[in-house]
Design brief:
The protein has 543 residues and is α/β, with parallel strands linked by helices. The protein has 13 helices and 21 strands. The protein folds into 3 domains: 323 residues, Alpha-Beta Barrel (TIM Barrel), CATH 3.20.20.80; 60 residues; 64 residues, Immunoglobulin-like. Helix 1 links the parallel strand 1 and strand 2. The chain is globular, with a radius of gyration of 23 Å. The structure holds alpha-D-glucopyranose (GLC). Alpha-D-glucopyranose binds next to loops.
Length: 543
Amino acid sequence: MPFSPEPGTATPRTQREWWRDAVIYQIYVRSFADSDGDGEGDLPGIRSRLPELAALGVDAVWLTPFYVSPLADGGYDVADYRDVDPRFGTLADFDALTAAAHDLGLRVIIDVVPNHTSSAHRWFREAAAAEPGDPVRSRYIFRPGRGAAGEEPPNNWNSIFGGPAWTRLKRPDGTPEEWYLHLFDAEQPDLNWTSAEVHAEFDDVLRFWLDRGVDGFRIDVAHGMVKDAALPDIAEGQKADLLDGTTRLPYFDQEGVHEIYRRWRTIADSYPGQRALVAEAWVEDAERVARYLRPDELHQAFNFEYLQAGWDPRRVREVVDRSLASNGAVGAPTTWVLSNHDVTRHVTRFGGGATGLRRSLAATLLTLALPGSAYLYQGEELGLPEVTDLPEDALQDPTWERSGRTERGRDGCRVPLPWEGAEPPFGFGPAGTVPWLPVPAEWAGLTRAAQRADPGSPLALYTAALRARREAAVGAGDAVEWLDTGPEVLAFRRGAGFACAVNMSGAAAVVPLTGEVLVASGPVEQRADGVVLPADTAVWLRG
Ligand code: GLC
């Protein structure tokens, strides 16, 4: 049922704020569970599987876009922000899903995509049909081309998916005219955030979903909406890579975005029940990230530095310290994330095979032992690896075509989840379902049903760790007290009663910690002088 907000009744910040230490499970809607057998996941499919997520022990789910969309970029190309795409269900399905989640004690966060719309959005269709200079074009970023006949793009920016960031419109008779900006696919025209109409539209979109009871938003490309007004060329060789937050670019992390978030914060705060805003902001470093988290801006931001730290103890420790310090300075919690729908799954990043899996489980214990909030990406609790050998004709990520078929893109982490049974697609949909990406036959041993029956499975470890995390309130507070264990073993206490150690050294190590073993990612041995950790293994201790 839609929720009736009472403006002005926001919960004071002094009460416990759920998002400060929540574990949030990312559902890539298209690949989670398919209720109707069309090969794509959908909202009723999610609803039917929610009890599994409650049993796993997460606090919230984040749903990737399910709005009306041509799916040129998996739904991050929205044609109608206030409706569900028929292939994913209906608004009534959304309401039923939200209600079911709330009944299970799970909060619901949804994606909002404000940097660009789909080219199928009514606004863009109107803009394309209008004359240059028409006010309906000012919702987007149209410019005349350079060169004698306007045949060159207005500047040298590139799309994050490859190729130029500008596409030239053509009249129906083929006459070329203005160019429009798209930092992503040509079917994702960038909105013009100097337009009051754009601001008003998104205020309203946020309210539409807040009224329906969502607990928060994940803001897509949160660092991208405002562009340097001069649209200056970038330096030769500068790369428009989403994952490269290390270079200052005239279309990312501009001062003006903060004003938008101050406004959005007032909207979120005008609703009861602690609605939260989380930024997807690939910016330079922890200090730049923390600027999005000042008390009157957003609640959380993804910690991509942590995601990118690799299996490198020095770097991990540095990132942990720096992110806690930067976020702590603005009173914001830190988040921890290892995987999402845009990056290679961490089992594979950490080396793949048995080693990759061992490390990834150890990394999970580290992640869940840190203070703050953590994000899990669907399937990581099953230890799923990246699928690196999808057939070329199955690839759908726009990166594949836009890179001239040189970069395969992100489909390998988006393969539908294996639920049960012995044959692909392992209960992803009803019998006979052909999933939108093929599911590897080797995943038979990785289904949730198989893992539920195996106390040594990744699923069992995640479930035990989440339970222990909740019982010991591990996410609360902000102090990490490192122990002196040499550079290759990370060990820390969190207050008096809880400690975590991760051996990244490549050989067994003795860590001077004693107490009750709460969870371990591999076989550990307790001795008088401490706990013996095999290589690539982590442990949690109480006492
Ligand atoms: C974000 C999304 C990604 C999408 C891009 C463009 O980075 O996570 O999947 O392609 O924005 O919307």
